[in-house]
Amino acid sequence: MNATKPYIKVVVGVILNEQTGEILLGQRPKGKPWEDWWEFPGGKIEEGESQKQALVRELKEELGIDVHTCTPWVTFTYEYPKTIVNLAFWRVTGWDGTPRSLEEQQLAWTTPEEANKLGELLPASLPPLRWLRLPPHYAISNIQQPENSQAWLANLQQQLDQGVKLVQLREPSWPDGPAAASLKDVFERAIGCCHAAGARVLINSVHPKAWWKLADGVQLRAQDALLADARPLPEEKYLVGVSAHNTADALYAQVLGADFVVLGHVLETPSHPDQPPLGWDGFASIAGEAGLPVYAIGGQSAATLEIAREHGAHGIAAIRGLAG
Ligand SMILES: Nc1nc2c([nH]c(=O)n2[C@@H]2O[C@H](COP(=O)(O)OP(=O)(O)OP(=O)(O)O)[C@@H](O)[C@H]2O)c(=O)[nH]1
Ligand SMILES: [Mg+2]
């Protein structure tokens, strides 16, 4: 990065209507740089302000609302031709008052999928719009034995019925190895029922590379991510997740151009009895640096989604049931 460019710290609100999935975007006022381009409401953090204080102030100044519920989401740095901007995106889910235009800017509620129909979007707003399409729950398989396949597929169907939209097949200790034909059969059936429910399936990188493109993408183990020198699957069609245990893993996910990080384990979990958990504070500090949406893993369930979000998670990943 060019050190002579001004470095600006900004906080941005993803103002979310959780019922409809819509977000609030605004058009930049006349006379400002990038006038008329659409953006998330927000602005520069002032000297001595925390991110949250700046967010509350900006949304009061720009929209006249009093924010009472918000959580950190993703912070990343974007280099424009003339400036470098560090953008801390926060999810805003509770506020008093009705957003109205106080800076003569146009406002619009839209979905992340439809936002580009409004007009030109600030370049640094595009990754967050893509990330907002990631669901809050990420279900991970743990079938272990071919004889458990039927029961797992039935359980998967239940989770799909409850709204799970992202599933990972991860079976490192399958009896005939992670490339076994019996596992391929389960994989294909899982894809069938997930696609019928509008859900996506990722395959763990422990499984054959030839399977990755049959799925909707790959979940790279930390060790496999570190061996890759580029994103292994194209962006539009596939998702790439990276498993991370520390800051270095998480930062490398960003270098690879991954879509998200799975970070853990956060709490004690039967699947990793010997390694110490990160704890929520450890999770929050790594997630804050990841520059990508982060799923918390390890001891997670529907009941931990809220605490995960308070610590900067996009969502939660778990083997044991998620929905509910
Ligand atoms: N609010 C906002 N700013 C963004 C986004 N994406 C992005 O690159 N930025 C950049 O972050 C900076 C925020 O500036 P701003 O003009 O909103 O600042 P502000 O509200 O404090 O206004 P002011 O400078 O008039 O006091 C700009 O350089 C803008 O280009 C976004 O989605 N929302
Ligand atoms: Mg602003």
From TrEMBL:
Its cofactor is Mg(2+). Its EC number is 3.6.1.55. One of its GO terms (biological process) is DNA repair. It holds the Pfam family TMP-TENI. It catalyses: 8-oxo-GTP + H2O = 8-oxo-GMP + diphosphate + H(+); 8-oxo-dGTP + H2O = 8-oxo-dGMP + diphosphate + H(+). Keywords: DNA damage, DNA repair, DNA replication, Hydrolase, Magnesium, Metal-binding, Mutator protein. InterPro entries: Aldolase_TIM, MutT-like, Nudix_hydrolase, NUDIX_hydrolase-like_dom_sf, NUDIX_hydrolase_CS, NUDIX_hydrolase_dom, ThiamineP_synth_sf, ThiamineP_synth_TenI. Residues 6-134 form the Nudix hydrolase domain. Belongs to the Nudix hydrolase family. This is 8-oxo-dGTP diphosphatase. It comes from Advenella mimigardefordensis (strain DSM 17166 / LMG 22922 / DPN7).
